[in-house]
Amino acid sequence: MAQRKGCLIGCGVALVLGVGVLVALFLGLGKMVDVAEKTLLDPKVYASVNVGDPESEVRAKLPSGESFVKAALKEGGPAEPAGSVCAWYVSSDDKAAEDVLRLCFKDGKLAEKAQYRMK
Questions:
Q1: Distances in Å between the alpha carbon of 47 and those of 20, 37, 50?
Q2: Could you read off the pLDDT of 32-84 as tens digits, one per residue?
Q3: Disulfide engineering: 104 pairs with which of 15, 32, 40, 112, CB 3.0-4.6 Å?
Q4: DSSP state string for 51-81
Q5: Rg of the chain over CA atoms, in angstroms?
Q6: For residues 61 and 49, what is the distance between their CA atoms, to the nearest angstrom?
Q7: What count of other Cβ atoms lies within 10 Å of the Cβ of residue 71?
Q8: Beta pairing class for 109-117 and 85-91
């Protein structure tokens, strides 16, 4: 009887741990998909916008750019133009997957485009 009870407890613990691992994997995968949707930018879209274009038109073509990796993308890039608001993206091109694409806006227009390697 004692052996059976110990076996049941062990199986219960293993089941709870297994469910915990599955939940953690699911949440981690969800975060990765979230980052991909918010920070990946097609280089063709980046190339299609020009300095001076209205901010509303440019932002309509872009993902939100708001994710927990934003701080990491800022590192190693050129100084931001004074008074501007910038958005950082990762290139969706497999060959340039380490490229950061930065777009800065000022006074309702695209003020600067910058492309640099992620550190």
A1: 44, 19, 8
A2: 444 445 578 888 999 999 999 999 999 999 886 665 566 667 777 888 889 99
A3: 112
A4: TTSBHHHHHHTS----STTHHHHHTTSPPPP
A5: 22
A6: 9
A7: 9
A8: unpaired
